[in-house]
Specification:
By secondary structure, the protein is mostly helical. The protein has helices spanning 2-34, 42-51, 54-68. The chain has a domain at 19-55. The chain is built from three helices and no strands. The longest helix is centred in the first third of the chain and has 33 residues, at 2-34.
Length: 79
């Protein structure tokens, strides 16, 4: 009975991981489409970043930071 419960829990965890991975992939695809990145490699993305204006770069950086920040790893600033 315990093995069945663990198996069900394992399948549920795998489903959650797959869902999160799909959401991240969709977000990255959205960023590539929005900023007109033709080559879907890190080098193509870096080339596109180099050709962006500072305003576009900061807007994209803020979107990515807002989407991927979790708040669990923030460093504390000494006061």
């Amino acid at each position: 009975m315990k093995k069945g419960i663990l198996a069900i829990a394992g399948v549920a965890v795998l489903a959650l991981i797959a869902k999160k991975a799909q959401q991240r992939k969709a977000f990255i695809k959205e960023i590539f489409d929005e900023y007109d990145v033709k080559e879907k490699t890190p080098f193509g993305f870096a080339d596109r970043i180099r050709s962006m204006s500072d305003e576009d770069y900061h807007a994209m950086k803020d979107k990515v930071k807002a989407h991927f920040s979790h708040g669990c790893c923030k460093t504390k600033v000494a006061e």
